[in-house]
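anyone seen this seq b4? input:
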Amino acid sequence: MLGSSNKSRRQLLRAGLTGFTGLTLPGLLRARAEAAISGKNADTAIILVWLRGGQSHLDTFDMKPLAPVEYRGPFSPIDTNVPGIQITELYPQLAKCADRFTLLRSVAHNAGGHPSGSLRVLGGDPATADKKIPTEPDWMSIASYLRYDPKQQLPNYVAINPVDRYDSFQIAGPAYLGPSYEPFKVTGNPDAPEFVVPNVGLSEESGKQRLRQRSDLKRNLDRMRRDTDQTGLMRALDSFDAQALQLLSSPDAAQAFDLSQESDAVRERYGRNQWGQQCLMARRLVEAGVDIVATEFDGSLCGRVANWDDHAVNHHVFEANQFRAPYYDQAISALISDIYDRGLDRRVMVVVTGEFGRTPRISHVASSGGGVASGKKGTVQPGRDHWPRANTMLFAGGGIETGQIIGATDKHGEDPVSRRVTPYDFLTTIFHHLGFNHVQLGLKSFAGRRNPLFGKGDPIPELTGSG
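predicted toks r here
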């Protein structure tokens, strides 16, 4: 009977906390405390900029100007501020700060669908077939699990325009770690005048007072139940409830999310649009102590189909890249420069990537509909299809040696010919920056299971300071 009674009290408590906050935050905090692991490096952080659909490497960072016309596309490479490094003419601002980032041109895998490719890059899932939901946790959720800190006022994993879905497929998530390890999600356009982050830093004193009254009432009820609780569960959970209340009422938390704290000049530097302000918020959050920030570049700034999936049926691939380039170039170059200018470059690593590259050989297919970067339905236009055999990732900060190129693809951009790396190498590099030895991680078992990335990859020396 004692076990049944304890179970009933836990169920009652869980229901009560959900009703109190309207969030799963207390459960998230409790689970993180139970999962605390020694050996973390609390000073490092990562900003992931995710390009849902896959950026064309040949039209951006791995151009092949001497390739036949059916491969190379219409854009010309331009010199950067690093002798010998060229990138697309579409990114003049990035060309001016190439000494502050490194390009990894030789990422390759064999998961060719958007869901499978995303699950491979974000979580090391070995499957090549698409799945509706992840069976392996993504690296952001694992890092959140490992980075629990009971003193931290802000969530340690925040997703701004979350990296979570591709159409009806879920491409990221905590999987068997459980929903407690999902990110604190920020949705909407941070550049919109009406934009607010809900449930953070209640601004009105009356709202705070109501929150405190509800907290006091719940605490009194909990105290009565706690008198008969022999497990200590109630006493322990009070601290998690307090942390949830702290986020809801903390002016420091509210300030971290508040872009109005930035000058007009800084906001203009990033670009007064959704991508630019997402990146600015990401910088503010890591500066305030958030460990993991993931943000996705998609939506109207991408073109008609709102992503980087530049099949000819979706987009005129070259018009699409030209359309989105100014927003991308400004936002990413501002983020990189700001990280360095503010002295965050050793602590914070910026990673920009999608699930794969695009086909080197250009296809010509009829458009399925007209719109931004796409001719009217039936118009034959150029496109590039899925290409997991080659992709370029951009890295900045993290204390790495920048102003370099890692790896190379062949003359058509089809396959790596030097320094071929896999998503497993990428993922172990991420964990290396966060202070976790991947061999030690391989010995850990999450909910009785082992993530397949552990033991398969090795940190990329040029991205760890050991190259």
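The longest strand covers residues 101-107. Residues 35-201+250-463 form a domain with the Alkaline Phosphatase, subunit A fold (CATH 3.40.720). kinda curious what u guys think
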